[in-house]
Amino acid sequence: EVQLQASGGGLVQAGESLRLSCNASAFNLAEHMIGWFRDTPDKGREGVSCISSSDGSTYSLDSVKGRFSISTDNADNTVYLQMNNLKAEDTAVYYCGAMKYGGPLRRGEFYCSRSARFKYWGQGTQVTVSS
Questions:
Q1: From CA 9, how far away is CA 21, in angstroms rounded?
Q2: What's the chain's Rg over C-alpha atoms?
Q3: Is the CB of residue 69 less than 8 Å from the CB of residue 51?
Q4: CA neighbor of 49 nearest in space, from 122, 8, 105
Q5: Exposure of 30 by Cβ count < 10 A (0-12 exposed, 13-18 middle, 19+ buried)?
Q6: How confident is the model at residue 1 (pLDDT cuts 50, 70, 90)?
Q7: CA angle at residue 93 from 124 to 18, to 5 degrees?
Q8: Does residue 41 contact residue 55 with C-beta atoms inside 8 Å?
Q9: Parallel, antiparallel, or unpaired: how do β-strands 78-83 and 68-73 relate?
Q10: Nearest of 127, 97, 112 to residue 50 by alpha carbon
Q11: With 90 as the cut, is the pLDDT of residue 6 above it?
């Protein structure tokens, strides 16, 4: 059974860091795109960062560029989201999702903004940033 296990959320102060992990089981991570999404009351499910696990090419939302970094460890079947200099507006429940995808991530914004394309989902992990 395909499973994604998200972890690493917590309560931090503005300016601090967190690293989220998404561990995949029962499928080959290298054949998928993994995305980190967050649910907020005003924007719904928002794509934050996506990575093509086949070559490591990435896309990130403008508001997190320079602060968040997505990476993959295919040997460990895990995708990470390193979040630095966190802001109060980053507070949300974060989810990781996976969709079948091969090759470079050429249309990152297109795919990462369409959560309905992602077939598999992990449970959410809460990130709370106090200002």
A1: 9
A2: 13
A3: no
A4: 105
A5: middle
A6: confident
A7: 95
A8: no
A9: antiparallel
A10: 112
A11: yes
> Can you tell me the distance from the alpha carbon of 36 to that of 97, in angstroms, rounded to the nearest whole number?
6
Digit-coded pLDDT (tens) for 28-58: 888 999 999 999 888 899 999 999 999 999 9
Amino acid occupying residue 119: K
Q: Where are any strands of DSSP class E within 55-121?
A: 58-60, 68-73, 78-83, 92-100, 120-121
Q: Which amino acid is at 99?
A: M
What 3-state DSSP class applies to 76? coil
Of 94, 93, 90, the residue nearest 129 (C-alpha):
90
Mean pLDDT of 117-123: 95
Altogether, the residues listed in the chain come to a count of: 131
Strand, coil or helix: what is 37?
strand
User: CB of 35 within 8 A of CB of 64?
Assistant: no
Which distant-in-sequence residues (6+ apart) come within 8 Å of 39 by Cβ?
45, 46, 92, 93, 95, 124
Per DSSP bridges, beta strands 78-83 and 3-7 are unpaired
Cα 100-3-88 angle, rounded to 5 deg = 90
